[in-house]
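ok trying again, last paste got cut off:
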Amino acid sequence: MGPRARSGAVTVTARLELVLDCRDPDGLAQFWAAALGYRQQGGAANYRALVPDSGDGPKLILQGVDEPKATKNRMHLDILAGDIEAEASRLTQLGARRARGEVVVEHGMHWIVMVDPEGNEFCICRSDDC
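nice, full thing came through this time. structure:
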């Protein structure tokens, strides 16, 4: 069992880090840094680490692998934006493309399914907080 505070509450010391397999870590580092407002923190061998330029957020590790992407991602990134069409246009200029032409509307939520330059799916989701 993990560590517990005296009040009985669980003390969590873990943090989230995301890892994305890819063929070209350097190329995708440029795309994802620009897409997310991140900067490259460093790298070693087939790994590149990206961190937020400012503020808080999970580290994104790009891991170079030999095999190409074959099927739909089991997990994907969502980018939250106030204007999803403007964000889709911006990310298209960086090398992304729409996976579908239409905006998806489900349960009052709106999003656009996109793929990065290597075909990894991600979504641009409308958020009034942006």
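cool. Helices lie at 25-36, 84-94. The mean pLDDT is 90.
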